[in-house]
Design a protein that fits this description.
The protein has 497 residues and is an alpha/beta fold. The chain folds into two domains: 394 residues, Alkaline Phosphatase, subunit A, CATH 3.40.720; 82 residues, Arylsulfatase, C-terminal domain (2-Layer Sandwich), CATH 3.30.1120.10. It is built from 17 helices and 16 strands. The protein is globular, with a radius of gyration of 22 Å.
């Protein structure tokens, strides 16, 4: 575990002071609008697909009773799109309101592994970019992050603006939830911003709740007990141990993996319930804005999908932009705003930061590319739909996509171009793909081939121009080195072998 108490210094301190002085008027205005500013809790459940939650229509198993209950008093965004299908760039977009190409933390998974071995410097968020934590800390919110670390290592820049940065939340237990609530107890007099992230749903899948759905009772019980007994280990050991146990019970297959994945969701759901109960017991529930989302989903053996990591159903994400990898939940509970409302237009993870700031009457940083979603529940007639950008940023090749209400348009950039020109450059001959998600929700039929007689050619040209325009601004990441703790954490999650 790594816990940091961070004080700004150097350029960051100067910039923070300037922000505080320059926005004194904004602070006064915010105070005038609300006697007691809301607390903020941003929860990110790593690797959580939207379509495995009851609130999003999943009926095969009761994975999420507490999340579903939360949705009854919250706003649920039906088509929310992650900025990337793996953790580091997606979370950086969540916390900055910037697409990956703009915030600049766009190295591949392979590049990250090489950096962890000391073979190259790690890309770091430039300090000139303002994070959500920095924006709130400058206006008096106490800030803390309780994360699973590893791909959210503080040295990548995730600690910018946080007074405390804890990296112990890989898999959860009662003591860890109590530690989060304990920090709240120490900061409940003034407004606080808490970012809570966990790998509870991420591989290795250990929760046995639904194994009896797919295995005979005795085998399900024995397998569950063996999986739950796997100790926390460094390196790939936990992932390999889980796979080894599944194979020993002749249970390493997509059906069992899906049941275990759903069990991970149910496990997190219980911990979320405990946390929400803790807020209620402390009298903080009606003073707290709560946002629940994820960074990406997971491939679970869907037919016709590539299997870049060996089997296609266990610990598979980052390589592509299918819906199961980028369609993630967004549930926002705001005191005083009527809940149980479903919002249909497409939204993007870069919209979360400006939305939180708007609800708090705090101006968003001028560089933020996302937009506040507030009009969607206050003035939906004024909302102008926009496509959501995602960037894969995992393998040697690269993919970019635009998700509209009906269509998904993709560009695939070959590895040679990435090696020569970087991930942000889109060559004119990049492979183009178009899916009609209304007629083809499984993304099997590419409409680019054969386009001509109908309006597909015009639609492809318009989406291509829009996508290239969004990618025109390139971030310039700083370089740094990750800690030994980060290397251990990434190994434990299967990013290093």
């Amino acid at each position: 575990m790594e816990v940091r108490e961070r004080m700004p210094s150097g350029r960051a301190a100067v910039r923070l002071a300037a922000v505080v002085l320059g926005l004194a008027g904004a602070i006064a205005l915010a105070c005038a609008h609300r006697e007691s500013p809301l607390n903020v809790v941003l929860v990110s459940v790593d690797t959580l697909r939207a379509d495995r939650l009851g609130a999003y229509g999943y009926t095969a198993r009761p994975t999420s009773p507490r999340i579903d209950a939360l949705a009854t008093e919250a706003l649920l965004f039906e088509v929310h799109v992650a900025a990337a299908p793996w953790t580091t760039p997606s979370h950086m977009s969540l916390l900055t309101g910037l697409v990956p190409t703009r915030h600049g933390v766009t190295g591949s998974d392979r590049g990250l592994r090489e950096a962890l071995k000391g073979e190259r410097p790690i890309e770091r968020l430039p300090e000139a970019i303002t994070t959500l934590a920095e924006a709130l800390a400058a206006r008096g919110w106490a800030t803390a992050a309780f994360t699973g670390g590893a791909t959210l290592d503080p040295r990548i820049g995730f600690d910018q603006g946080f007074g405390k940065y804890d990296t112990s939340m890989v898999k959860l237990d009662r003591a860890k939830v109590d530690r989060v609530l304990g920090w709240i107890d120490a900061h409940d007099e003034g407004p606080f911003f808490l970012f809570w992230h966990t790998f509870e749903v991420h591989a290795p899948y250990l929760a046995p709740d639904f194994l009896a759905d797919v295995l005979p009772p005795e085998r399900a019980r024995a397998l569950g007990e063996r999986l739950e007994a796997i100790p926390e280990r460094k390196g790939w050991k936990a992932v390999r141990a889980a796979k080894r146990v599944m194979r020993a019970y002749d249970a390493y297959d997509p059906e069992v993996t899906r049941a275990l994945y759903d069990g991970g969701i149910r496990s997190f759901d219980r911990w979320l319930g405990l946390f929400v109960d803790g807020l209620r017991e402390r009298g903080l529930w009606d003073r707290t804005l709560l946002v629940l989302t994820s960074d990406h989903g997971e491939q679970l053996g869907e037919e016709g999908r590539p299997a870049p990591f060996g089997d296609g159903f266990y610990n598979v994400h980052g390589h592509a932009l299918y819906e199961e990898l980028i369609h993630v939940p967004l549930i926002i509970r705001i005191p005083g705003v009527p809940g149980a409302r479903r919002i249909a237009p497409v939204t993007a993870s870069i919209d979360v930061m400006p939305t939180i700031l708007d609800v708090l009457d705090v101006p968003a940083p001028p560089e933020a590319q996302g937009r506040s979603l507030r009009p969607l529940w206050e003035r939906p007639e004024d909302w102008t739909p926009e496509a959501a950008l995602s960037e894969s940023l995992s393998e040697e090749k690269e993919m970019k996509s635009l998700r509209t209400e009906r269509y998904k348009y993709l560009l695939t950039i070959d590895a040679a171009s990435v090696a020569e020109r970087g991930r942000s450059f889109v060559p004119p001959d990049a492979r183009r793909t178009l899916f009609d998600l209304l007629e083809d929700p499984d993304e099997r039929r590419d409409l680019v081939e054969g386009a001509g007689a109908d309006d597909r050619t015009e639609r492809v040209a318009a989406l291509d121009a829009e996508l290239r325009g969004l990618l025109a601004t390139v971030g310039r990441p700083e370089k740094g080195q990750l800690s030994a703790e980060a290397r251990d954490g990434l190994e434990a999650l299967g990013y290093l072998q």
